[in-house]
Amino acid sequence: MSIEMTAILAGTIAAATPLIFAGLGELVAERTGVINLGVEGMMLVGAIAGFAFAAQYDASVASALLVGGIAGTLMALIFAFFTLSLSTNQSACGLALTIFGIGISAFIGQNYVSMALPGLEGINIPLISEIPVLGPILFQHNYVVYLSMLAFVVIWWVLTKTRLGLLLKAVGESPESAHAMGYNVLAIRYCAVLFGGAMAGVGGAFLSTVYTPMWIENMVAGRGWIAIALVVFATWKPTRLMLGAYLFGGVTILQFHAQALGLNVPNELLSALPYVATIVVLVLISRNKKHLKLNLPASLGKTFSP
Asked: Which GO terms describe its cellular component (predicted)?
């Protein structure tokens, strides 16, 4: 395998990391019947919060990720209050949250535009990282990349192998039945939405402190929307979401290696590739309505008042 192809595959894994964090968080929220279109805004607020904290206090990446997760959780709390406590429209509130996140991140970030952070070096695991081909692709990343993989394993296990996963699915399928059985549906949905916000915030903080360790206005650049699309692409299954994240990560990283591969394609078209791929995938999936209905949480987007 050529050095260029190895670099593309390694870059794909890194580029997919924020999508994995945000997508898994949104998947858990949607499993309970709540669709949050504010992922983009939560990621942006997490990105600026993590970056500002790291730049202001010379903090570690781990601390910046924690602050980003807290910021994303607070954004999700706003969304949860309006949609769950006040029973307002979930789609409208999600869009408003994204607009709010774009605005407040730009306002806070105007003092950090010229700053850069040291970033985070990859972990060279002895022996394993020196394996030809596989070593550079899989075993020379920073610990946050491996943390996203661990998050996938934990969430997959919880959703498919535990009673909690069955409960989340039950709330998403029939909140009335879950309520009749004595479960606090609103509390469960609150926790799921807040978890989704924390994951989105961590994904945003990863972008600003590790992947591109500098602050650029609107640097999430649509990844929040791609994460939402990934949940539909995955038909609400974590394994498919993981594969989809790497697919979109590959499409994203391809634009940086196009010239080296000899592709004579305008830069504007290459920059649009991830979003074009998102539209194409959603169109293809929407054609199989029967498959979508079999996996779609029955109460998705519907308000519930006990």
From this structure: plasma membrane
- Which among 86, 121, 116, 93 has a CA at the least distance from the CA of 37? 93
Q: What one-letter code names the amino acid at 219?
A: M
Residues in CB range of 81: below 8 A, 6 or more apart? none
CB atoms inside a 10 Å sphere around CB 251: 19
How far is residue 283's CA from residue 222's CA, in Å, rounded to a whole number?
A: 18
Residue (of 4, 19, 2, 3) closest to 249 by Cα position? 19
pLDDT tens figures, 137-160? 888 899 999 999 999 999 999 999
What gap in Å lies between CA 258 and CA 263, rounded to an integer? 5
Residue 7 DSSP label: H
Reduced to 3 states (helix: H, G, I; strand: E, B; else coil), residue 152 is helix
Q: CA 102, CA 44: separation in Å to the nearest integer?
A: 7
Specify the pTM. Answer: 0.94
Looking at residue 253, its pLDDT comes to 85
First-to-last CA distance in the chain? Answer: 58
Q: Closest Cα to residue 103, out of 76, 95, 51?
A: 95
Ramachandran sector of residue 119 (left: φ over 0; alpha: ψ -120 to 50; beta: rest): left
| Paired tokens of 216 | 């650029």
What is the model's pLDDT at position 293?
A: 72
Residue 172: in which H helix or E strand, if any? helix 163-173
Tokens 């858990």, residue? 28
CB atoms near residue 180 (< 10 Å): 11
* Digit-coded pLDDT (tens) for 166-184: 999 999 999 999 999 999 9
